[in-house]
Amino acid sequence: MDDDIRMRVKMELPFLVRVLASDAVEKAVEFMGKFGVKRREVRYIMALWGGPMTQKELCETLLLDKANTARAIAVLIENGLVRKDKRGVGRSYKVALTPKGMEVADTMNRFLDQNIDVMCADFPDDVMCNVLNTMETMCTNLDADGSVANNIDFIKGMMSDRLEQGSGPDS
User: Fold this and answer.
1) Helix count and strand count (H, E) for the chain
2) Where are the bilayer-spanning segments (predicted)?
């Protein structure tokens, strides 16, 4: 890599990633506030949009500890957005979005899709594909324990399932 480009990457990349992440999170939190969902609960709703999961699976997918996950799930159950699903293994159970939770998740996904469409409006598909592949490689390079790769696979699988069901981002 050219020294000028290397310096620019070192200076700009962390800032740009933080701006994109902060903007997405702030918009999502503000939007979800209309449904009584707080910042920490947004991630759980989005993860459960892909289907029921055990609390352990949620912890691993979201890279969060058991205590925070248990608290968030309790709040989401109390708010009628999540329910316990008996399809767990042994004594464990899965949690799943209720119809109300699914409606909130679908609404949030449409909202996020609109924001992403605005952000990416001037980019052709091949450029966006290169951006995604580059970011995926960068994240995978930092992935000492395989958790990022597992999450990328989870997201791709979730999106594939949703597109097959006809309820993906463009439905």
Assistant:
1) 7, 3
2) none
Least confident among 32-46, 91-105, 137-151: 137-151
Q: Which residues 6+ apart lie within 8 Å of 170 measured at CB?
A: 113
Q: Residues 19-42, buried b or exposed e (16+ Cβ, 10 A)?
A: eeeeeeeeebeebbeebebeeebb
Q: Which domains are present in the chain? A: 3-121 (1.10.10.10)
Buried-exposed string 94-118: b where 16+ CB fall within 10 A, e elsewhere: bbbbbeebbebbeebbebbeeeeee
Helix (H) / strand (E) containing 83: strand 82-85
**Tens of pLDDT, residues 102-137:** 999 999 888 888 888 888 888 898 988 888 888 888
Q: Are 115 and 121 in contact (CB under 8 A)?
A: no
Q: Would you say 78 and 25 are in contact if contact means Cβ atoms under 8 Å apart?
A: no
Cβ–Cβ < 8 Å for 33, 19:
no
Q: What are phi and psi of 160, to 5 degrees?
A: -60, -45
Residue from 126, 122, 105 nearest 31 by CA: 105
